[in-house]
Design goal:
Elements (H helix, E strand, L loop, with lengths): L1 E4 L3 E5 L6 E5 H13 L4 E4 L5 H7 L8 E6 L2 E11 L4 H20 L2 E13 L1
Parallel strand pairs: 6-7
Antiparallel strand pairs: 1-2, 2-3, 4-6, 5-6
Length: about 120
């Protein structure tokens, strides 16, 4: 399976199937965001707005606070989260990294090189 980089998507050619599969970067971003929010101890994702604004408005966009680059079929992701009070920061961060990596690789077939987690705050 060969992989070709596109600016806003990645194209996977399936060889013997004589076809191609295009995955928009936004899809990979949403997969990463959804995987991160499934981890126990993650209160929410944090985007460009302040975390207080997001908490007050109840916004739960699965791409806010998630940055993904796909280059030559390799994914690098960065995720900014609010952690729930009482949870271990290192443990939750490691689980987020594992879950995001596994979800992207299982759902897209792309290789995940890195997942950077930023703890933006603590949700009381």
């Amino acid at each position: 399976m060969s992989k070709e980089v596109k600016q806003d998507s990645v194209t996977l050619s399936a060889g013997e199937l004589n076809g191609e599969l295009k995955i928009a970067n936004e899809v990979v971003t949403i997969i990463a965001g959804l995987a991160a929010t499934e981890v126990e101890g993650v209160a929410s994702l944090v985007g460009n707005a302040t975390h207080e604004t997001i908490a007050k408005l109840g916004m739960r966009s699965l791409s806010k606070g998630v940055g993904v680059t796909v280059e030559n079929g390799v994914v690098n992701a960065s995720i900014s989260i609010m952690i729930q009070y009482g949870y271990s920061v290192p443990e939750v961060s490691a689980k987020v990294q594992e879950r995001v990596k596994a979800s992207i690789e299982n759902m897209t077939g792309l290789h995940v090189d890195s997942v950077r987690v930023t703890i933006a705050g603590v949700n009381m």
